[in-house]
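User: I'm new to structure prediction. If I give you an amino acid sequence, what do you actually give back? Let's try with this one:
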Amino acid sequence: MGGELGRVGPQGGPDTAETPDVADVADTRPVDVPSPAGTPRSVGIVWGLLILNTLGSAGAKTIIPLPRSLIQMATMGALVAAFALALAANLRLRMRASAYVFLLTLLLVPSVISSANLESGFGALFRCARLSLFVGTLWLLSRWWPGGLTFVRHHIRVYFAVLGTVAAGLVISPGAALPDLYGGRLVGALWPLTPPQIGQYAAVIIGLTVLLALDRRTDKASATLVIVPSLVLLALTHTRTATLGLFIGLALAICSLLLTSAAARRFFTWTVLTVVVAAVGFASALQAWFLRGQSQENFSNLTGRAKVWDALLAAPRTAGEQAFGMGLGDKSYAGLPIDNSWLAVYQEQGLIGVGLVAAIILVLGGVALLRPPSLQRACAIFLISYCAIASYTEAGLGDASPYLLHLALAASLLAAPAEADPLSAPATLRRRIPRWARDREVT
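Assistant: Good question. You get back a string of structure tokens that encode the predicted 3D arrangement of the chain. For your 443 residues, that looks like this:
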């Protein structure tokens, strides 16, 4: 995957010319160091299949009714295909040491122990197998985590394509895309996507694209093509968590660039001025959008979430259930969604699972703070911050989900370039000295 150490002669061996080409001598990259330019195309396909797997099978009614069993076959088939493609691309099983994927592997332990009791049914074992394939695929992809932007571009492209289906559904059938069942909020009319899902995807690609544009890694036309439609879709979802996660995460990411990027300083200044003006001039409109027609009481208990959380915490548990949880389920309690990653992990994987998920956030955040300022670091800070904020009102940090993919992307951005293997090849190409020149006495 890395650069070559010398030209190949006609017989397949090293070129024996006395004066090798300058480019050959200057190329000192180790043989097996992957580079973004050398990443196989199949890796991008694998990443897209992982995203397809995490889209889920439950959501709004679509224009063409899709049986849930068919959607589950498509999503699970995407995961199996992703693992097979990743294995085919990495047959020699070369993997990069990753604290993030290692902690996810440890998370499988309480998941399997609690699911083996079958308190959540046989579906818990199926979810454990799914999580195992998901983590195994990330291990196989870790070979191509040199800290570049390849996976960032894959992330944006695939989620932008997903949002394209949402926009197409809105154009084809506005009534189905803005149903009264969801209070007129935007849903997926072609693929069953809920407003929080759409808001999450839009917020993530907006943030990443803004950071790419600030560092001039993409042109203004391409950035505008992604940001403007995504902002419109985010506004139509009325998703408060995604909106707050976008602004807070982007603010933290841009602050990490203030000392090294003049463009980041200008953008930060103009953004602050714009927000202040909007807050003063459109306060009533912003408040109405934020409340979504809810009463103050309903808003204060987070649309009924607080009642579910109180009941979950008050439920009696054995010592084993407190430590390992009840087994992987559908992130609900008493038939109602938990909508909190920490409580969902506590319910399904116990206190051990909560500790491992907290370690994931702390390790990634700590590594990001220790890295020197760069675009990769800024993107990682944005993703980590967004997932930490969204974990309060969204579940997903303990099972295969888009949030784990966002954190996997952050881990790939924070990965240090692989070091050269001293046994694989010499670091540089030395000039060949003919035998007659070595044997002559120097007079």
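You can read the tokens as a compact description of the fold. Here is one thing that stands out. The chain has a mean pLDDT of 84.
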